[in-house]
């Protein structure tokens, strides 16, 4: 469903992604773990070209984008295949909850307003926010704002959802609610997801496959069982020791 080949990204002199090869099947939930500053966010951002890689090929379904010779049109097609949930929610402060969820459906997908509204209500119901649809973000808790972000990401029905530390700005008591929602998305809705997280127990439970990234490369990957019970690489072992 998604295939990434030899992806490279630098910021000036700093090489951040040093050749990433990666594949996932439809409905697969991939969790990326690894130390801070090692390129996890950059990897997600390159998948949908929020950041532009210098080299590498990204294929999602029938769309193929080669960093060294791609057109704006191809990038746009690639972006339509994915949506992203950010660490800091990234929702519009001057729009209500329902407007936030409707916006990408109307502006990107050109869906009719009434239909967009119906869908928005459906997704807001799934994240338990039907009673807040006319509120502005400033009147919501962090966890509620993140649920708006998740509803918005789902509403465009993307083939691939990218989630960058979706619970890391939340107070501990709000984390479980978000993890429940993501678990439900994975199990019932069979969405393909790539999730960066430091919640190891959640990673263990939700992932079909865990990827350990360090220093701009995928160091090791495997089932949760393989990675958590029997890591092969020294760096993976050292990283996981911190969480025991
Ligand atoms: P992670 O998500 O694993 O913590 P990031 O992908 O955010 O790591 O960052 C990897 C490295 O790239 C870090 O050294 C970070 O400072 C650097 N970096 C990320 N984004 C930018 C940017 N827009 N400009 C310059 N450096 C960046
Ligand atoms: Mg990050």
In words, what does this structure look like?
By secondary structure, the protein is an alpha/beta fold. The chain has one domain (2-242): P-loop containing nucleotide triphosphate hydrolases (Rossmann fold), CATH 3.40.50.300. The chain has helices at 40-47, 72-80, 97-107, 113-126, 142-155, 172-189, 200-206, 224-229, 234-241; strands at residues 2-11, 14-24, 29-33, 55-60, 63-66, 82-85, 160-164, 192-196, 209-214, 217-222. The strands form two sheets. The protein has a six-stranded mixed beta sheet, with helices on both faces. It has a four-stranded antiparallel beta sheet with strand order 2-1-4-5, with helices on one face. Helix 3 (97-107) packs parallel to helix 5, helix 4 (113-126) crosses helix 5 (142-155) and helix 5 (142-155) runs parallel beside helix 6 (172-189). It is found in: Cell membrane.
Which short descriptors sum up this protein?
9 helices; binds adenosine-5'-diphosphate; six-stranded mixed sheet; alpha/beta; 39% helix; 10 strands; Rossmann fold; 244 residues; binds magnesium ion; globular; four-stranded antiparallel sheet
SSE blueprint and pairings:
Elements: E1 2-11, E2 14-24, E3 29-33, H1 40-47, E4 55-60, E5 63-66, H2 72-80, E6 82-85, H3 97-107, H4 113-126, H5 142-155, E7 160-164, H6 172-189, E8 192-196, H7 200-206, E9 209-214, E10 217-222, H8 224-229, H9 234-241
Parallel strand pairs: 3-8, 3-9, 6-7, 7-8
Antiparallel strand pairs: 1-2, 1-4, 4-5, 9-10
Helix pairs in contact: 3-4, 3-5, 4-5, 5-6
Bound molecules: adenosine-5'-diphosphate and magnesium ion.
